[in-house]
Amino acid sequence: MDPQRAELMQQAISFLSDPHTRSSTLVQRIQFLESRGLTGDEITRAITIANQSIVNGGQVPYTAGPATLPGQNPVHVPWDWRDYFIAAVVSGSALFGAYAIAKNYMFPHLKPPTVSAYEADKEALTAQFEAAEQILKEMQAETQAMKATLEEQREKVDTAVQEVTEAVEEMRKGETEVRDEMREIRAEVNNMQEMLPKMLERVKDQERLSYGELQQELKSLKALLLSSRDANTSAATTSIFSQIGKKPSIPAWQLAQSSSASSTPVPTPPSGLTTTATSDEQVTSS
Length: 286
Hints:
Order of helices and strands: HHHHHHH
Main location: membrane
Shape: elongated
Number of helices: 7
Family: Belongs to the peroxin-14 family.
Protein name: Peroxisomal membrane protein PEX14
Distance between the termini: 164 Å
Keywords: Coiled coil, Membrane, Peroxisome, Protein transport, Translocation, Transport
Subcellular location: Peroxisome membrane
C-alpha cells in the first residue's frame, strides 16, 4: 500500500481509539474520516482495528495486511445506545420520507375518482368527441369538394386528351393525304421526265418535216416566179416594139397579179425558215 495511505489509516485508527472522540456519534466520526479522504473500505478496516485495540486494552498498530487472520472470524463490535438511537432516527426519517412520497405522488393516483370527477371527465370527453365530429364533418366536406374538383379536372383532362387524339389523327390523315399527293405528283413528274424527250423528238421530227415541206413549196414557188418573170420579160419586149408612139399603160397581167396579190395574203414562214429561204434566194440570184 502507498505509505501515505498507510499513514492515513494509522491516523484514523488513532482517531477512533481516542476516548475523547468516542463521545461523538459513529456517523460523525465516519463523516470526519470521509472528509480526510478515506474510502469506505478503509474506514471499515480502521473501525475494526480500533475496536480490537479497545478490547485488548492497548493500541494495535496498523499493518497493510488483512485486519483478521486467515480462518478467524471478525470480531463483532458492540453497539451502545447512541448507535441504536442514530439507527432509529435514520430508519424513521427514511420511513417518513417514503410515506410522504407515497402520499403526495402515489395515493392520489390509487384513490378512486369522485362522481363529480366522472361527470367532468364525461363532459370533457363529450366535448372532445363533438369537436372531433365537427372536424370530421369539415374534413368530409373538404374531401367532397376536392373530389368534385378532381372530377372536373379529370373530365377536362379527358376532353383535352380526346381533342389532342383527334388532332393527331387528323394530322396523320393529312400527312397521309399529302404523302399520297406527293407520290402522285412525283409519279407525274417522273412520267413527264420520261415523256419529255420523246415529245421533244416528235416536235423536232414534225419541225423537220414541216421545214422540208416548206422548202419544197418555196422551191416550187421560186421556180414559178422565175418562169413567170421570163414570160413577162419576153411579152414586154414584143409589146414595146408594137406600141411605139402609143401612150404607156400598165399591162393587164400586172393588174391581175397585183389584184391577186392584194386579195391573197402571203403566209409568214418561221424566222429560221425565212433566213434559210433568203439565203437560198441569194444563192439562186447569184
